[in-house]
Amino acid sequence: xxxxxxxxPLNLVEASRAAADLGDDARFIAGGTALMxxxxxxxxxxxxxxxxxxxxxxxxxxxxxxxxxHIGALTVHADVASSELV
Length: 86
What we know:
Number of strands: 5
Shape: elongated
């Protein structure tokens, strides 16, 4: 693998700004397993990795006023499996 820059935005605004500023030169990483395999196999060669790990607004399970279930994009399977809401 080649050298990569690493960014950890603290909120969605910063993450969106990174996406707009870096474009195709960046890849977003949450869990990262598939991305790391692609990097090792040289299928991808971004200049920057943008970690979504600190974006707590993308975690959690809730039910809104209309009764719709919402599962955040960074919510782990174990939390879904053990949730009383699910």
